[in-house]
């Protein structure tokens, strides 16, 4: 699903009406009908609803919504504000109306749409503040009034705090950042028949992952006479004293994704736990007891043992491990055909604390930082501390382009930034996955896909989607509070 810039939405509307013959009025009716259907699916018992309509198409949508809701038995109170000058003459009546509104009131916000490019001020700002002060359940038409659709999280003026945002055809970039959740609440994209077509003169680098895209790539059908060597050999460098569990989680998820062979390089302290918990993995045991410092065998010049390498989960940052990471990156660069690489957790922290290592990371490697790890990585790249989620996302896209890397910026809507685009936001996952080891599982999933020959960008997008989908299944089988990282693996 495409995520368009707000400056292009108006052009898309015109392209659609011109190419199909559907009038603007008919499109407004279609949008209002979709909104009312979604609204009444959530609000099954008609009651009283306050509809606030502003100027432009958003206001036209809201007026149609009011009419359709009234036809469905809702007691509708419509306030129409076509321009700022229309507010003051009815201010007293508006204030009186707000005082008399009943408990359980629902509000439909149709004051401003996605084309807003500056903070709301003056009479309209007071209307927004009044809506927020009601304490009612608010449904936003397309986007909460006052929120800028292109993702700016540094909001200067008042914004409607919606409970639910019902947006039309395409999600807005602003919806994907944590700072804006207090305004958007739960959001849903409503199909109004404008998708699945190209719009001349309009392009966007942003996508939201959809099942139809995933199903084209995964799973690959296996030949009846295939054998394990045809499904790749992954090498995982992970674990240190007290953090062998991270290595186990990453290794188990790597194997669960269908990797033919997996070798895990662990310090000696991890040998017995691995033999006990994961006999399917082969071990490369470091000479150090509590941390890894030796180069695993199978990476000697001229050898092509491994098809993908992963490093980081529970690895630690001992001086010997830092030296190992530098030798590993240098060694991989000497390969004729470089194994695909995924770096996470302490591998990323080591790079951030030793910026000279950045230039050694092979092109199109996959990096999987959470926001804290990313900010440290961005600083190592010479970037300022990001001012909010949108700024951080743009920095991830910048690093992906400048360093020729795939950056997986983890979060509620994980961003997969690729060197040349498109850049993907994930649509699966839930708060139950905010648990220890969940990121290690993702590293293993992506490593498993890389080992089987998936393109790095595809492996990252598929891995993030499947990780979230498995997390959704795990929550459905238990609850958001009870999910463990191992449950995600069990549902892969």
List keywords for this structure.
Rossmann fold, UDP-N-acetylmuramoyl-L-alanine:D-glutamate ligase, six-stranded parallel beta sheet, eleven-stranded mixed beta sheet, 16 helices, 17 strands, elongated, 492 residues, alpha/beta
Characterize this entry briefly.
Helix content is 39%, strand content 15%. The protein contains 16 helices and 17 strands. Strands 1-8-17-16-15-14-13-12-9-10-11 form an 11-stranded mixed beta sheet. The chain has a 6-stranded parallel beta sheet with strand order 3-2-4-5-6-7, with helices on one face.
Topology (SSEs and partners):
Elements: E1 2-3, H1 6-20, H2 24-42, E2 48-53, H3 56-71, E3 75-80, H4 91-100, E4 106-110, H5 122-133, E5 137-141, E6 164-168, H6 181-184, E7 186-190, E8 206-208, H7 211-217, E9 233-237, H8 244-256, E10 261-266, H9 271-277, E11 282-285, E12 308-311, H10 319-333, E13 340-343, H11 345-353, E14 366-367, H12 371-380, H13 389-403, E15 406-409, E16 415-417, E17 423-425, H14 438-451, H15 456-477, H16 485-490
Helix pairs in contact: 2-3, 8-14, 11-12, 12-13, 14-15
Helix fraction by DSSP (H/I, runs of at least 4): 25-40%
What structural class do helix, strand and pairing data support?
Answer: alpha/beta
Strand content of the residues, in percent? 5-15%
Segments where pLDDT lies below 50 for 5+ residues?
Answer: none
Q: Characterize the main sheet.
A: 11 strands, mixed
C-alpha Rg (nearest Å):
26 Å
Q: Provide mean pLDDT, rounded.
A: 95
The fourth-level CATH homologous superfamily of the largest domain is Ribokinase
How many helices? The count is: 16
Number of distinct beta strands: 17
CATH topology of the largest domain: UDP-N-acetylmuramoyl-L-alanine:D-glutamate ligase
CATH top level class name of the largest domain: Alpha Beta
CATH architecture of the largest domain: 3-Layer(aba) Sandwich
Shape: elongated
